[in-house]
Amino acid sequence: MFAFTWIGTALASCAATCACHACNMASREVMRRSARLAYCVLFTLAMVLAWVLRDFAKPLIDKIPWIVHQAMGTGEPSERWYGQQAVYRVSMGNFLFFGLMAVAMVGVRYKSDKRDQYLQHGGWFVKIGLWLLFNILPFFFPVSFVNGYGWVARGGSACFLFVQMLMLLDFVTNWNDAWVDKEDERYLWALLGVTGGAYLGALGLAGVLIYFFKPGGAGDCSFNVTMITFTLILGLAMTGVSMTPSLARNGSLFPSAIFTLYCTYLCYSALVSEPHDYICNGLGQRINAASATTLATGMLLALVSVVYSALRAGSNTALFRFTSDDGAAAEQPLLDDDTGRNYVKEEGTSAGLDGPPAPGMSRAARTADEAEAASKAAEDMTPVTYNYSFFHFIFALASMYLAMLMTGWGTGAEEKDLIDVGWFSVWVKFITQWVTAGTYCWMLAAPTLYPDREFM
């Protein structure tokens, strides 16, 4: 019986060791193949940490005397104060980490740069240690300094939203151009179908907004009705501008339909951000009981938006990536080999391969050595597949945006189990909607107004 127990224990220990080794190998392989995915994991951990500290950190922060002491001038700080301070400090730590990485990676253009190997794709134990240090260090900073960072984070978050808008403009126009250039009737019909579907989706979503945000018996909900109506007017304006004869060559109905749908979505997002006890927020009152689900959904949507924006802005969007001499930029999937090995073309011959063999070395051995050297030289001159510095800069801005999402844009109005709720959030989203519509109309009008200048 003892022998069976010992064998079982040994097998269990062996299985656990193998599992740990496999996980370690898998994690190292993921980091080797895609550093971007690893940075996404760090940002995800930061978001979860900010939420946990915001909703459950009062007993912990209450034990940090220098923080509480500086807040006692107006009496005992509220529980919201603890949550906002915790979020600000985690956000600041991640901003410092990604900002430092952005500065360190400035000017990396080729794989031969040592920073590519040792900073962007290597040194993970050191980088994780730095990330932990930067998340702890801000808890030693004075309250006044952290509150000052909160004001800076508002501006950084606005820049992040502007980058998101530029990416959407770039994505939609490239989509339209790609399908039109196919010169295939099927793609034109598909373009027409997506255009009609976007307009119908915008009208349908507007009807849903009227139903939920002007509930029966709620009294005066003129603000919500006005904003929904104005959103539809923006859609008509963008469509009208795109159909204007003098501007039609710069756009089409397809981008206008997509932006009409997007502006309607921004209206929905703004109205959902209204306080859940607001009488005209019928949807908020219905989902208020399921606060945990609401929080999880909100965090997931925010995380997807932030991570996708960082990945696309730093990696895939033509606005923000390096281009080759012929103007073609390399597209690279998230899980493809970040090290650039897929982009090295090994040549069968190179300068010096046809020369006389070295003394004592066979021609085959010389050819193999020189081919390897030529391959290494070609790899060293391979351009990086995305802008490392800008990639980290976007994550630094996203760290600021995280602070605004978790604190109601610095108003301290964010409640437990809620994210991105409050009147400040409402107005930020409506302003984003107006700027988006205005930028799209300007993109259509600028080439005609200034024919001598080159626009996107």
UniProtKB/TrEMBL annotation:
<feature type="compositionally biased region" description="Basic and acidic residues">
    <location>
        <begin position="339"/>
        <end position="348"/>
    </location>
</feature>
<dbReference type="InterPro" id="IPR005016">
    <property type="entry name" value="TDE1/TMS"/>
</dbReference>
<keyword id="KW-0812">Transmembrane</keyword>
<feature type="transmembrane region" description="Helical">
    <location>
        <begin position="253"/>
        <end position="271"/>
    </location>
</feature>
<dbReference type="GO" id="GO:0016020">
    <property type="term" value="C:membrane"/>
</dbReference>
<feature type="region of interest" description="Disordered">
    <location>
        <begin position="339"/>
        <end position="363"/>
    </location>
</feature>
<feature type="transmembrane region" description="Helical">
    <location>
        <begin position="158"/>
        <end position="175"/>
    </location>
</feature>
<keyword id="KW-0732">Signal</keyword>
<feature type="transmembrane region" description="Helical">
    <location>
        <begin position="421"/>
        <end position="445"/>
    </location>
</feature>
<feature type="transmembrane region" description="Helical">
    <location>
        <begin position="187"/>
        <end position="213"/>
    </location>
</feature>
<feature type="transmembrane region" description="Helical">
    <location>
        <begin position="128"/>
        <end position="146"/>
    </location>
</feature>
<feature type="transmembrane region" description="Helical">
    <location>
        <begin position="86"/>
        <end position="108"/>
    </location>
</feature>
<comment type="similarity">
    <text>Belongs to the TDE1 family.</text>
</comment>
<feature type="transmembrane region" description="Helical">
    <location>
        <begin position="35"/>
        <end position="53"/>
    </location>
</feature>
<feature type="transmembrane region" description="Helical">
    <location>
        <begin position="292"/>
        <end position="311"/>
    </location>
</feature>
<feature type="transmembrane region" description="Helical">
    <location>
        <begin position="390"/>
        <end position="409"/>
    </location>
</feature>
<keyword id="KW-1133">Transmembrane helix</keyword>
<feature type="signal peptide">
    <location>
        <begin position="1"/>
        <end position="16"/>
    </location>
</feature>
<protein>
    <recommendedName>
        <fullName>Serine incorporator</fullName>
    </recommendedName>
</protein>
<feature type="transmembrane region" description="Helical">
    <location>
        <begin position="225"/>
        <end position="247"/>
    </location>
</feature>
<dbReference type="Pfam" id="PF03348">
    <property type="entry name" value="Serinc"/>
</dbReference>
<keyword id="KW-0472">Membrane</keyword>
